[in-house]
Each structure stands twice: as structure tokens, then as C-alpha cells.
TrEMBL record:
It is found in: Mitochondrion. It comes from the Eukaryota. Keywords: Mitochondrion, Ribonucleoprotein, Ribosomal protein. GO terms for biological process: mitochondrial translation. One of its GO terms (molecular function) is structural constituent of ribosome. The keyword Ribosomal protein applies. GO terms for cellular component: mitochondrial large ribosomal subunit. It comes from Spodoptera litura. This is Large ribosomal subunit protein mL43. PANTHER family: 39S RIBOSOMAL PROTEIN L43, LARGE RIBOSOMAL SUBUNIT PROTEIN ML43.
Length: 186
């Protein structure tokens, strides 16, 4: 095992703000497009700004878009997320379609997880080499090819009577007993 991740900040994998439980919250907070008005390497980003940026802003009203023209610099896209992460991407000599795809990737992810050393909630000194236990670990493999419903695998007559069923039978017997007492009294 390598120790290259020992200097990264530790963190757990979790859904940000329980995203998807109630409603979806876009994690991208702001995106900054830095480009040169005359440099040839910024052509793809300039094409994206001219053709697709207005549509992107209309489809994503929760994302703030900044344009930052810079002289004699390469094109850069900086995305800032709700959890404080910043992702910096160089767009040098990328085409309009490539930039469209990369901006969509930045829009749908939750930040840069490569700077976090992932931790687990459980720890053991002797991890299992057989894999985790599941409810199907010790099941009979004949269940995989069985024709269901099958009396051999799921017969309910072998189960003990439930308390509800016992109460129902006692009530019916009590009701029948009262009816018989009324008939004999007449």
C-alpha cells in the first residue's frame, strides 16, 4: 500500500446536503470563464460563449457565470462548489464541443474529490478476504434455478400461528358460543 495520500485531508464519502432526498440542489455555485479575445488557443471558449453560454445560464439559474477577458493568457474555466471546492481546468486548444462536454461535467459533479483521502466508518485490523456478508451468503444455490412459488422453499403451513390469527379464532369461537347459548335459552 502506498503512502502518497497521507498528506491529503481525510474525509468521508457522503451525499452533500442529502442531495436527492427532497429535491435536487445543483452543487455548482459559480463558474468563471477566463479567455483572451485575440489568442488562437481561446477560440473554442470564445465560440462557446457566443453560441451556448446564454442557454447554459437560462437552464441553470442557480449558477453564477462570470466572464473574465485577459490579454495573452490561455483559456481557463474555474468552477466553485457549495462545499468550498474549486476546480481549475485548462481549456487550451479545446474545441467548442469539448468545452461544452467539460462544462456539463463540472455542472453535474459535486467538487474535486481527488484532494480528499477517503475514509471508512468502520475499521478492522484483519479485513476479510472473502468479501462482506450479505443475507444471501449461506443460501442454497438451488434457489437460483427453482421455479417459484415452490412448496419446498416457501410453504407457509410450517410457520407457527401468529398472535393476530389466534385472537381472531378466539373471537369467532366466543361469538359462536354466545349464539349457541341464545339458541338454548329460547
Amino acid at each position: 500500500m502506498s503512502a502518497k495520500n497521507i498528506f491529503l485531508k481525510p474525509g468521508f464519502v457522503r451525499a452533500p446536503l442529502q442531495n436527492g432526498v427532497g429535491r435536487y440542489v445543483c452543487q455548482l455555485q459559480r463558474i468563471v470563464l477566463k479567455f483572451c479575445k485575440s489568442n488562437g488557443s481561446s477560440r473554442g471558449l470564445r465560440d462557446y460563449i457566443e453560441q451556448d453560454l446564454v442557454d447554459f445560464a437560462k437552464e441553470n439559474p442557480g449558477v453564477v457565470v462570470y466572464l473574465k477577458p485577459r490579454r495573452h493568457r490561455g483559456p481557463v474555466v474555474v468552477a466553485e462548489y457549495l462545499n468550498g471546492d474549486r476546480v481549475w481546468m485548462n481549456m487550451h486548444n479545446k474545441t467548442h464541443s469539448e468545452i461544452t462536454k467539460w462544462i456539463d461535467v463540472l455542472r453535474t459533479q459535486q467538487g474535486d474529490n481527488s484532494t480528499t483521502r477517503l475514509r471508512k466508518y468502520q475499521y478492522t485490523d484483519h479485513p476479510s478476504i472473502q468479501g462482506p456478508w450479505t443475507p444471501f451468503t449461506f443460501k442454497n444455490p438451488a434457489l437460483n434455478t427453482a421455479e417459484l412459488p415452490n412448496q419446498a422453499y416457501g410453504a407457509n403451513d410450517r410457520l407457527p400461528m401468529s398472535a393476530t390469527e389466534q385472537l381472531r379464532l378466539m373471537f369467532e369461537a366466543q361469538k359462536l358460543g354466545k349464539n349457541e347459548e341464545l339458541k338454548t335459552a329460547e
